[in-house]
Amino acid sequence: MSAYIDAHVTHLRAAGRSTRTIIARQKLLKRVDVALPYGLVRAAPDEIEQWLATPGWGRWTLHTYYMHLFGFFTWATAGRRPMLSWNPMLDIPRPPVPKSMPDPVTDDQLARSLRAACPQQRLIIMLAAYAGLRASEIAQLDRQDFRILRIGDVPKRAMVVREGKGGKRDAVLPAHSKIWAMVKNLPDGPLIRSAAGGPVDGHWLAVRARRFFDRLKMPDVHLQRFRHWFVTAAHAVEEDVLVTQHLARHEDPRTTSGYALVTRQMFSTVERLPTFDID
Q1: Does any domain span residue 278?
Q2: Where is the Tyr recombinase domain positioned along the sequence (predicted)?
């Protein structure tokens, strides 16, 4: 079975899919291959449906898992020399795409989290709340990604975010002054490191964040809700949907002139976000 998964991973890399997508797809396929009675490539639709019906999964989890499986089987049965003769996903209804509602942490939850965090955990929360970064994006950050850029004639503190969600191109974002103060004296290399000093991934961040918030008796708080706080607070400051969309990286800029204007406003917006006394 590993040969099929390895071949699919090679296909995804050749197609330019993001590292995040490839890793998630590979992990999911291996997980399903172990869970199903006869493995992944011999799976019947009812076996896959039964696995997808596992209790406790949220709507986004179910939709994501379905799409990973659909992508694999569509690839495996396509082309002039398909690896498989049939696609069991064609007999399984696609779960609807969930409608997302903003779910930001409260100001009190943000302030409390920052006060209780160790320096590295505090930096992780700041990057989620004051740059709107996802866990996987935080994990990829390097000290070299923080730099001074000139916007017009004015130098601005900026950060480069690698491979956004869905394989989007690298993005340049404003670096809030408090984030800049936290990273400017860090050594070169990964911004966030394991206890052994090595690089981490988004899952590592999420697991440790979960433990941290559980210790604070905040079971409903997770890193993504700090990103929601960022988007909500940025829109409250600027009240410009286009600026907020660019900061959240939901859409690419439409025109060069519009992008230049939004870039200036982005830096101003981020620096005006509310801050809290955490010392």
Answers
A1: no
A2: 100-272
